[in-house]
Hints:
Elements: H1 3-16, H2 21-31, H3 35-49, H4 61-76, H5 90-101, H6 103-113, E1 125-130, E2 136-139, E3 145-148, E4 152-157, E5 165-176, E6 185-189, E7 192-196, E8 200-205, E9 211-218, E10 221-225, E11 232-234, E12 238-243, E13 248-253, H7 258-266, E14 271-277, H8 279-290, E15 293-297, E16 306-311, H9 315-326, E17 329-333, E18 336-340
Parallel strand pairs: 5-6, 15-18
Antiparallel strand pairs: 1-4, 2-3, 3-5, 4-5, 5-8, 6-7, 7-10, 8-9, 9-12, 10-11, 12-13, 14-16, 17-18
Amino acid sequence: MDEHQHIDNLIVKVLNGNASKQEKATVNHWAGLSRSNAYEFEKLKAIWKLPIEDSKLIGHEEQKQKIWRAYASESQSSKCVPETPFYRRGWVRAAAVLAIILFPLYVFYFGQERGIEEKGPEMKMISKSNPTGQKSLIQLPDGSKVWLNADSQISFYEGFSDSLRAIKLEGEAYFDVVRDSLRPFVVDVESLSVMVLGTEFNISAFEADKDLKVTLVDGSVQVSNTQQENDLILKPGTGLVYSKVKNHFHEFSETSNPELFHRTTEWRHGKLIFDGCNFEDFVKEIKRWYGVKVQVVGNPPEDWNIRASFQNELLTNVMDAVSYNKAFRYEIKGKELIIMFH
């Protein structure tokens, strides 16, 4: 069974009221992946509620055309959907199945033969981003809060949908999600998808980094990987590191690796933590945190491995402490930091 047929079958089960929680979540996640998916799902739900006059024509080509004429007119008008329950007859459920399975055929046939152009309602995409050296607190349409780190961006549709709260993340963000059992909250980042109902968690997924990190503070999250079948459920006080190169997860906790746990959750409070990172990662963090360019003169020691913690410190104070420990000189000229090794 291909992917399209699989999601069609799940949509039918959702409309018919026979879907499991996992199947509903899968359909909601699919609907949140793109505007066209969300629009198609909403219209199929509307068609499910519409009465069809002649049940004897089910399976007949004319009846198929009837279904999709209703779909087209629904798309081009602002009429309210009748409140009469549509799911009470078996032939109606069969019509919905036909409508879903024949959607690609309808777009090809009616779009070209009858000149009907399908256009969904305009859904405004909202993007919030920070340059290096800047952090921000963002309130989402549902009341959830997002602490967006430097050099990071989130994107979402204005108002969300009535079945899913979907976010796309580039970089790092800490989420405090308002609980809504009817609308799962999903964050998509590269090949990972993190689904929650209401919780506090952090995702670190900078494009230049080799690893993605998810850290859970409160609640529960389900982490899915498009390249793997098994999902991973995190408990409060735990996290995972996903290697992009190896396509592999490993878990950690506040107890087993407190430096990593606190580094991924305390940055929003102005706490800069180096948990044994090498020189390359040290430079990347300084660039993001303070918004400076870094020039390196000479060769840094191979055994850099710095462990330090700073709370709302100026760049000069950080560099004073690190340079004393690692025996190098530095200069700050405007927005440029020069690190000099002997």
